[in-house]
Design brief:
Blueprint: H1 2-25, H2 30-66
């Protein structure tokens, strides 16, 4: 019987915390979220571009050194 009481209290407390966190998170302005997403996408694309440039540079170095020479 006593264990059931604590389970109910834990459930009520977790439900309360869930409601509070969703309420606090809902107050952010939509423009701030969109701006953050835009910056994240820009950083993502810049990192991919850098990986492509570095990878192409390594490819050109090793193709020139170890590639077949056609005469």
């Amino acid at each position: 019987m006593r264990n059931s009481f604590w389970v109910k209290m834990l459930g009520a407390a977790s439900l309360f915390l869930l409601c509070i966190t969703s309420w606090v998170g809902a107050e952010e302005p939509a423009g701030l979220i969109n701006e953050a997403r835009l910056v994240a996408q820009y950083n993502y694309s810049i990192h991919i571009l850098a990986m492509l440039v570095v990878g192409f540079g390594f490819l050109m170095v090793f193709v020139r050194r170890y590639g077949k020479r056609v005469r």
